[in-house]
């Protein structure tokens, strides 16, 4: 048993040292890595494998003032390509946003309703939160006198803490009319 623990610890140390050696030999710009994953884009970048980008293209929905509505996948605009007169600006005030050239030759920004990475993240968060809340509400409806356990008990404890320890403490006796809204805001931010 002790030999297995020693081997596991030695193997873990080897992996850490090997990983440090690799990162020390390369210049790593942490800010660039973090901000490239945080900023909004028209595709959901997953990873890079053998110098090939792996990403999920998201739908682009734009309205050109001169030509009308267009719906197409963002993969049509990847790597500096233009699609049907639309392109992603590489610099300037609209860097990373979709532009088009009008008949006068000016670069203009079309009305953009695209599902971007941030929009998709908000949608996923909303659906997860809605699923959890509806599942919990259904459980309470079917078993009103039973004490919750597991994840249901944890969520009830969290709700009671926020309601009594945060909302009531800060608002006072008139806290009940604000509770539903403030709990919704809290859970929406917690889910992100």
From TrEMBL:
Pfam families: ATP-synt_A. One of its GO terms (cellular component) is proton-transporting ATP synthase complex. It comes from the Bacteria. GO terms for molecular function: proton transmembrane transporter activity. Keywords: Membrane, Transmembrane, Transmembrane helix. InterPro entries: ATP_synth_F0_asu (IPR000568). This is F0F1 ATP synthase subunit A. It comes from Macellibacteroides fermentans. The lineage of its organism: Bacteria, Pseudomonadati, Bacteroidota, Bacteroidia, Bacteroidales.
